[in-house]
Amino acid sequence: ATIDLFPGRDLGVLDTYVTQLFDGNKNRDVKNVMKLITPTGTSSAILSLLPRFDPEKKVHSISKQERKTLVNLLKILPMTITGLMGYERAVVADGGLAISEVEGKTMRSRMHANLFITGDLLHISRPSGGYSLQLCWTTGWVAGNNA
Length: 147
Known about the structure:
Blueprint: E1 2-3, H1 11-24, H2 30-37, H3 40-48, H4 64-75, E2 77-78, E3 92-93, E4 102-103, E5 108-109, E6 126-127, H5 130-146
Antiparallel strand pairs: 1-2, 3-6, 4-5
């Protein structure tokens, strides 16, 4: 699996951004400038993926190819999924509008006639994932049929 740390920027725009940061911080260590781009732990992990790369080298000594490799990692960060963290660490969705304020057969708000409340907008505590998706699909279907 991979993660795009900058989904709102294409590769060219991201390369320009990193180049500008590097140009403005030429005498700083790469590891310190990377903290301006990503959180500390993330930047350390990214730099560790670059073979034979010294994170303490000065930005001005980075080659164009090294910078491009780094930018590519920011767009396509490889991740190895090894398993789940267990039920006790699972995400639970919580919060939203009280069920008592929604007409269950239509998903229409009891306070505003033309407002339909669905999915995660409802106050229903549940594990995240499939349960939450099913809630969204079902309440959306009910609301859509009654709108």
